[in-house]
Design goal:
Largest interface: A-B, 39 and 39 residues
Oligomer: homodimer
CATH topology of chain A: Tetracycline Repressor, domain 2
Number of strands of chain A: 0
Distance between the termini of chain A: 57 Å
CATH class of chain A: Mainly Alpha
Order of helices and strands of chain A: HHHHHHHHH
Helix content of chain A: over 70%
Structural class of chain A: mainly alpha
DNA sequence: GTCTATATGCGGATAGAC
DNA sequence: GTCTATCCGCATATAGAC
């Protein structure tokens, strides 16, 4: 499979699966958008679920890169901790912007998802948890893990709010997060 | 359609759709659990989506009733405002407990859901918003709407966290909410 | 009113040509 | 390696008997 075809397939998969829903998107729609045929897809991936998992994996790598860039742009520890909200904004308004969260969406669609998809969701959660904890450590020290758990709740809430209200602004979550950080500092 | 058959159909729909996913659950599975046949289902509802919408409607009424009961049990204004978390716990561990949130789940599955389903989701959100605002009014007065928006974020975050970690405890959300209330009071 | 049996369409996946 | 054409199964919905 040529690299460009593979990339187009993943692009199309990401765009359609994570905005319209996975089950609601037939592979034919992905193929049409990618300009590829079914045989080409199934040459690279054994099943539709494998394509979903591959799209999630690539998305996760790009999300972490976006987040890293936002962290590095901040001058102080608290800014770096709250940079996750800049990243949410940036990722959303960028070319990879989806309706809400690709990982939560994949988890929501099937109680028994394939092992690969389930692993991708778990990885996303653990990445958020561990990175938030590390970023919180210089800010609140021993409370880092507890604060990270609170921020994970707020991040997930921001993502879920996009389902309730497509115009939902990340500013609310950032404001709530700031209050939670301040509370632990005091 | 006999009332008991109708109730069994809604029970089965609720249990399966909102735990395993709507698209992932064929109507046959609902029929098998309800002990009814396809003809009986389609006598009462024109489409599968209509059954989903009916199950959401009934669930919404019962959720509000559960919430009301938790509010009434509280002795003070702050307790009544935070009673939404008691209700989340009670609803979850009761017989209607689902994997996460039936309304967010329905919204997640299709970008273009049927008008009835979309309306049910919107109703759920607006109910949360307006009731939280009303309950916040005696606690923080003019800040009620702003606080309600924050609490809606936290409630949605608690629900989304259930997807990330099935054992997620509501206590975290309640604690965060308490801090947000305290901040607005001061 | 509920059943059995079935029509109908669509989605995932494959075979075989080029 | 990619395409065209197609198979096969499953899911929604209906027809007609009891």
């Amino acid at each position: 499979m040529r690299a460009t075809t593979e990339a187009r397939l993943l692009d199309a998969a990401e765009e359609l699966f994570f905005s319209r829903g996975i089950a609601a998107t037939p592979v034919d729609a992905v193929l049409a958008r990618a300009g590829a045929s079914a045989a080409t897809l199934y040459r690279g991936y054994p099943t539709k679920e494998a394509l979903v998992a591959a799209a999630l994996d690539r998305r996760h790598r790009d999300w972490v890169a976006t987040w890293d860039a936002c962290v590095e742009r901040q001058p102080d520890d608290e800014g770096r901790l709250l940079a996750v909200f800049d990243a949410l904004d940036a990722f959303r308004s960028g070319p990879r912007g989806a309706r809400w969260c690709a990982f939560l969406g994949a988890a929501a669609e099937h109680a028994d998802e394939s092992a690969e998809v389930a692993a991708a969701v778990r990885t996303d959660t653990e990445t958020l948890r561990s990175r938030l904890t590390a970023l919180a450590e210089p800010v609140v020290g021993p409370d880092a893990a507890a604060l990270a758990e609170e921020l994970l709740l707020v991040v997930s809430g921001d993502l879920a709010m996009r389902l309730r209200d497509p115009g939902h602004r990340t500013a609310l979550a950032r404001e709530v997060a700031r209050a939670l950080v301040a509370r632990r500092r005091a």
